[in-house]
Specification:
Elements: E1 3-13, E2 23-39, E3 43-48, E4 54-58, H1 70-82, E5 90-96, H2 106-121, H3 128-143, H4 150-157, E6 162-167, E7 173-177, E8 182-188, H5 200-210, H6 227-230, H7 236-261, H8 264-280, H9 287-299, E9 303-307, E10 314-320, H10 324-338, E11 345-349, E12 356-357
Length: 360
Amino acid sequence: MPRYLAPGRANLIGEHTDHTDGLVLPVAIDRGVTLEVDLGGDAIALRSADADGEVEVPADGSHTPEQGWGRFVAAVAAELAQAGRRPVGMRGALSSDLPQGAGLSSSAALEVVLGLALADAAEFEIAPLELASLCRRAERRAVGVPSGIMDQAASILGRADHAVLLDCGSLEYRHVPLPGDHVLLVADSGVRRQLETSGYAQRSEELAAALPVLEGRRPSEVDVEELDQLLAGVPEVPARRLRHVVTENERVRQTEQALHEGRLDDLGRLFTAGHASLRDDYEVTIPELDRLVELAREGGATAARMTGGGFGGAIIALVPSDRVTAVEATIRDGYGRDYPQHPLQLHRCRIADGARRLDD
């Protein structure tokens, strides 16, 4: 029985830039969604070890469940049908070791693993970034979230021990080596959110209100030094949203350079500035995430910041291998004291390869 895996992702830097075709620097991690299926038939029938119930939809996605994870199954099938895939079904089981709602893109991993298997079932060839674009459309079809392409692209393009520098406008990308003497630590706050019910869409609308001052340019094409003049007549809230996006694109460029040159102190400074911008200008952090970042730095992390859409979820920290235990202890003790009501989870992650069929 064929098995497919799509990893989750942690974004090192470049948050809330992808839906304005900006720059991002994510990694695929060694946790994801696995699908074991028999290919064939005229329906997609799946059960999940991690979610209640079973889902059965037509192989072309022409019927969509009203709620639940079946919406994603139908949406991916429908987008593939629109792209020309024959309606060939499959029957099997999903499992995941990704915490949902932690900002590690569990929904994108689900979409990607479904897309891989359904394309395989129909012998339908699709290029990696075409599949990422299709899965992005499926997410909007399923839950109405105006997300960018980063999550799906990271799950597909990931490479072990490398980040992916992706221009979400041109879709040009390159792999950036990461320091081999560091561990990626994910600290899950235990605060859950769903993007369709959070302030994600509102932030996108507020940002869109400021974009006309760019006169057709993407925020990634704007020099930070232009901002004061550009934002002079823009209302305060849209101005702050655009300031975050423009400065965050520049931080992505500087982070790539710092990684190439081994300037780890600069990496810490850039992550700190990125988190502060997400807190003050984009307003998507919460006190729990802010505290986790503080604790990671206190414990000895090289760099730490919020990752994902915000309003809950997790932070990431790049930690020297010989400091991981100390950083974990500092986070666990401080967070347990300040937020005992939230079930903290710490995950040491390897930077992994992207989505693939496992039995090849």
